[in-house]
Amino acid sequence: MITPPKGDYASVPLNPAGRQVAEGWDPAADAAAGEACRAFGAGGIMRLPTRLKIAWTDDSTLRMETDAGTQVRTFHFGRAGTADGAPSWQGYSVAEWLGLPPQGNPFGALVAPSQEASAARGAAAGGAPGGRAGPSAPPPTRGSLKVVTTNLRPGYLRKNGVPYSDRAVVTEYYDRFSMFGNDYLQVETVVTDPTYLTTPFVVSNQFKREPDDSKWNPTPCSTDAPLGTFHPPTF
Predict the structure, then answer these.
(1) β 169-179/182-192 pair status
(2) Fewest C-beta atoms under 10 Å: which of 99, 105, 130, 182?
(3) Cα 111 vs. chain centroid, distance in angstroms?
């Protein structure tokens, strides 16, 4: 994957303030200021080429690691609100199971889920809220796992300095499905930001399950030089 040219923010609903930040992007200044991980925060990390490790820390906490940028995300079940700590790259994430999407949607349904995931999403009415037990819920319109992240440090939606602010809210919908003999994880990410965006920015990405972690390769936050120079079209 290449770093887009400076000023290339096509398809991102930036307002004038957001465009000004994107056009003034300086990766050397980011690195010098200790801000090299701006593109690896919760608003952008799932868009980067990365591998994931996902495991339960306890009955109400799910841990997700990325090898790109060596980031760690923590999803808290059954805990509303935000943390009192300082903003961070991955912020504070509150998660909830939504149950299985309507039948007939191969991209939304969890096909052949693990025993643990099935129990977590399919608990009977009156079950414990959140975590591995999971709540009972009416059929959702999308997503099997919803994660809402706040308390973020300012970051980038793309490696070339397309910004989101500390006021951004990142909402994600995670679905697992099988196709052609492979297991996939689909992640829909919705970023809302009153500082730099005119409307929510929505992207969708897929991850293919690997048989083991032999390709796991944690690397520090870094941004390659952009390829070429962006020249906006003229009419």
Answers:
(1) antiparallel
(2) 182
(3) 22
Q: Is 22 exposed, middle or buried (0-12, 13-18, 19+ CB in 10 A)?
A: buried
Contact yes or no for 36/153 (Cβ under 8 A): no
Cβ 134 vs Cβ 144: under 8 Å: no
Cβ-in-10-Å burial (0-12, 13-18, 19+) of 140 comes to middle
CA atoms within 13 A on the CB side of 45: 27
As a whole number of angstroms, the longest Cα–Cα distance in the chain is 61
Confidence check: pLDDT of 175 > 60: yes
pTM of the model: 0.81
* CA atoms of 54 and 89, how far apart (whole Å): 18
Q: Copy the structure tokens of residue 68.
A: 């790109």
Question: What is the token pair recorded at 170?
Answer: 């990142």
List pLDDT tens digits, range 135-160. Answer: 444 444 556 899 999 999 999 999 99
What are the structural domain ranges in the chain? 16-208
Looking at the predicted structure, is the pLDDT value of residue 194 above 90? yes
The 3 state secondary structure assigned to 32-64 is HCCCCCHHHCCCCHHHCCCCEEEEEEECCEEEE
